[in-house]
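tool_call: predict_structure(chain=1)
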Amino acid sequence: MRSVRARAAIGATLVVALALVGAGLAVLMVLRANLIDQAGLEAEVAAREVAGQLALDVPYASLDLGDEDLHPVQVTDGEGRVVAVSEDLEAVTGTATPRVTPVPPAPVASPGDDDDDGGDDDDGGVDPARGKVSTDDPDFSNGTATIDGETADYRFARVEGTTSDGVTLTVHAGAPLATEQEAVGTVRGAMLTGLPVLLAVVAGVTWLVTRRALRPVEGIRRELAAITASEDLRRRVPEPDSRDEIARLARTTNETLTVLEASVERQRRFVADASHELRSPIASLRTQLEVGAAHPDLLDVPGAVADTVRLQGLAADLLLLARLDAGERPGRTAVDLGALVREEVSQRAGGRIPVEVSVADGALGVTGSRGQLARVIGNLLDNAERHAESAVAVAVTRDRADVLVEVTDDGAGVPADERERIFERFVRLDDARSRDDGGAGLGLAIARDVAGRHGGTLDVGGAPQGGARFTLRLPAPAAGRAGG
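tool_result:
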């Protein structure tokens, strides 16, 4: 089942079906209980009427047992013998005994006169005990009764009555359960008939509502499929006017497409610029080798070596950029920036421009990749020496929770409107001089990328002596911060 609409419709239908079945069963149980209670009350009233007659010493044969079709009655004595039943009652279950034939009652001795007690027969004596009907809650039971050959279900109530002679009799009176059975059957039939119809309506409505709700999703899918087929990342998926999850999905998708378009475009420019940068030294090196092959005495060995070194450096830069773009995470090695700066400067001893180093006292350690951080400092020094007139200075200091490396030169500086552009790949403000000096426009881009991946920043501003000042800011580890 791959359709969301189908799953939603089936799920909603199942939930509604379970709810309706549960509610229907509860309704049937309550209805049945109420009707049975009503039948029991009716049976109790009929039983108490007969028990009241017995308490008034009405003879068994003269008892008014009511309508035997509605209220079959069975009266038994203390020994379980049937003494009275409704007329035409042929069989009964659910009472004290299944017998329906009355038996003659046991003889009861009449109280004799005692002339020896010296009393008289006037009305001044104590009144004889009167009969009574039990006030206890009656017992109920379900059974059947056959009257005139027809058997039906009844609710029987059991009530005790006592005659004035002290004889306790038990009255079982029944009330028909046909009304309860008919009502429950009618309601059950209506539920069984209406439930499929209602479930079909629920399934259809859920299908239509889900289809309408997911229509924008289908539009997004079609547009994404078209973008995939055409590879045109300038296209965008439609954004619905609603403010629901689907609208947010469309907006997020468009934002992702925007980032993807920029990434692809940056990758294309990178490949084009890399090809352009590689073409020049390769062409120069080939020319020199071809000339050397034809005229060995004209071979420019130093020039060939310089072109080879340039190619090697460019290849290393491109490889590092490729690893950074692939998401390579820096290491977690402790690096002392003061010692690292001194090491990088010592490798440039005797260069065109002298480099002045200033390292502050205290903890100047950071966490990261020593090789990548050395590349950052080396690129900054190369850039400063390339543009300086006579002096380059490097200062390593502590600024609260960060370690700063500032590289300044006394060159022409960087115009304010170009200070962000110079960190783009293959960007050179002075193409001719940079190309002659071997710069490919990747050093500052690599430096900023590495700084960002180490949780730091790299910015450029103006130096006091008029040149450029590059500031590398890296976070110090937690222990170093506490100590600083």
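agent: The domain at 245-313 is CATH 1.10.287 (Helix Hairpins). Proceeding to next step.
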